[in-house]
C-alpha cells in the first residue's frame, strides 16, 4: 500500500512538470532580461548617435 503513492506520482510526469516550470521561468525571466539588455543597447546607441549628430552640427555651425 505504501508503494502505491510512489506509483501514482510517475517520475516522467514529475520531470515533465519541472521542465514545464523551468521553461516558463526562462521564457519569462530570460526573455525579459534579453529585452532589457536590447533596450539598454538601443538607448545607448540612440544617445551616441544624438551626441555625435549634435557635435557635428555644433562644429559645423560654429567653426
From TrEMBL:
Key word Transmembrane present: yes
Transmembrane segments: 20-42
Keywords noted in UniProt: Membrane, Transmembrane, Transmembrane helix
Domain of life, source organism: Eukaryota
Listed name of the protein: Transmembrane protein, putative
Taxonomy of the source species: Eukaryota, Sar, Alveolata, Ciliophora, Intramacronucleata
